[in-house]
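ok, trying the design again with the full structure, not the truncated one.
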């Protein structure tokens, strides 16, 4: 039976793709047949992320399987689709995911932005995660402001009945860590009542070890 996880963020630009690509690389290094799925991509370079996943997967799947919905404008999907006079086909997203789930042991699904990003009408990213019946991995920034953003995301997930596998703190800024970065690691799990699975460093140094730790936690939970 295929397993999966829905990777969401506390905001745009928190590093969901960076984390997803690292996890995909580590899972496949372990011999696990894993795939990444980006249901919706927006922006001029929006398919760049899907191309990263395709390369890690040795181009086993066409780009349209990894990313079935692509919109040119760097906006929320519902807004971009309206500007482009398109209708986002939810059935296509669900069908494509099901096809991948039949072929892979683990499917990592990267959401668009955060849980309350609108996809179509009153249908949000949180609704897609619920439709796919997948637990969440929440990617948050390491630095100042992340407590508020992460608590809001966790509370929205709880309100929507979504299971949370854990948090990952991504160092998007790099450099020397200040008091906020040091205390967030300790305080966030207590406040959110969600396990911190690990931290992802800025750049490539230390990334394999950090990713191994996160994968160990996820696999122990059987995703």
């Amino acid at each position: 039976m295929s397993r999966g996880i829905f990777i969401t963020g506390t905001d745009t630009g928190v590093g969901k793709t960076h984390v997803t690509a690292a996890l995909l690389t580590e899972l496949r290094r372990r011999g696990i047949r894993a795939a990444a799925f980006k249901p919706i991509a927006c922006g001029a370079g929006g398919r760049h992320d899907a191309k990263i996943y395709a390369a890690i997967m040795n181009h086993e799947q066409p780009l349209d399987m990894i990313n079935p919905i692509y919109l040119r404008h760097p906006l929320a999907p519902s807004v971009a689709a309206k500007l482009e006079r398109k209708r986002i086909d939810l059935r296509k997203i669900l069908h494509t995911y099901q096809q991948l789930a039949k072929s892979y042991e683990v499917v990592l699904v990267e959401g668009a932005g955060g849980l309350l990003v609108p996809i179509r009408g009153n249908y949000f990213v949180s609704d897609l995660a619920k439709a796919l019946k997948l637990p969440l991995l929440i990617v948050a920034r390491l630095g100042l402001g992340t407590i508020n953003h992460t608590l809001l995301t966790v509370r929205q997930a709880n309100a929507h009945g979504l299971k949370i596998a854990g948090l990952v703190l991504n160092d998007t800024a790099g450099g020397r860590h200040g008091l906020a970065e040091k205390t967030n690691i300790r305080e966030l799990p207590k406040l959110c009542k969600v396990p911190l699975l690990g931290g992802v460093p800025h750049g490539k140094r230390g990334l394999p070890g950090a990713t191994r730790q996160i994968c160990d936690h996820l696999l122990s939970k059987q995703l």
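Keeping the full-length input from now on. The mean pLDDT is 92.
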